[in-house]
User: Fold this.
Amino acid sequence: MSTSSSSGPSDGQDANANGPTDPDAIRADIEATREQLGRTVDELSDRLDVQARAKESAYRARDTAVETYRESPPAVIGGASGLVAAVIGLLTWRARRRRKAKRVATAAMAAEVRAAARRAAAEERKQQRRATTKRLARQQRRDARRIKKATRRARRRRMLGRSKR
Assistant:
């Protein structure tokens, strides 16, 4: 097997396939590429300029509205009044919904406050019962001690009384 060591064009390829070799042709090709690149950059900058596109869109909408009004004023007035009615209806609906939500929240908060008050009152009653129970237990212990003392005294008196006889 032998390999070809030629570095020139093979299989019918000519040197002009990769581009022009003449300096003037190369300059012309570069200039054409620059112009094409400039157009591409301008187009991209136009597409990315959102503010200008928004203004243009607003102008178009205004022109369309003016043109439509000139063609049939009653239809435009009717449509505008319908739009105004829809906006007012939407605002009214939202306001009512907010008021209802406030009422529900207020009612929930009031219910929570009432429940907290009931819990506090129940806890207070519980503490009062505990205090009363403690007081009664103390009183019963005192009474039991007094009775015990009185019983001892009575026994002593009896014993003393028997011994004197």
Remarks:
- Residues 21-71 form one domain.
